[in-house]
Specification:
Rossmann fold; single chain; alpha/beta; 5-stranded parallel β-sheet; 17% strand
């Protein structure tokens, strides 16, 4: 029987292009019989316009939403483009993943030279932007 990997993909709404490309790689792996990879994506890439994370109530709602998305995940994927080093929500996602002892895999985008130390420090493994490398890392570290 093929294991189902419950994934949370860290994302920023204004950088949804990289998120979409990673999701496409995972879908290809799912559809490739030789890879035998099955997963469920617990992340929600679209922003609810009624939640303003800059307000105290919106901040709490978004943090609670992230908690509910990360808690059932068997693995957290962080696309380690440099924008993440400047994104305070990334630290919140890392803190939630650590709270639930979820393994974190850092994914290095193609052409990326500088990798944020924040991601390197928390990742169990850093992998390149390659379907096979990503899938193997998920299999190695997924709970």
């Amino acid at each position: 029987m093929i294991k189902n990997h419950n994934l949370f993909i860290s994302h920023a709404w204004r950088y949804s292009e990289a998120y979409s490309r990673l999701e496409d790689l995972l879908k290809i792996a799912r559809q490739t019989p030789s890879m035998k990879f099955n997963y469920r994506n617990y992340s929600v890439p679209k922003h609810d316009p009624l939640i303003d994370p800059k307000t105290p109530i919106g901040f709490r709602k978004l943090k609670a939403a992230l908690d509910s998305q990360i808690s059932p995940a068997s693995c957290v994927l962080i696309i380690s483009g440099m924008y993440v080093a400047h994104r305070p929500w990334l630290q919140i996602e890392i803190d939630i993943a650590n709270k639930y002892e979820k393994p974190i895999i850092g994914i290095i985008p193609r052409g990326q030279i500088n990798i944020p130390l924040e991601v390197q420090r928390v990742a169990r493994e850093m992998v390149g932007w390659n379907t096979e490398s990503i899938i193997k890392a998920i299999r190695r570290h997924s709970l």
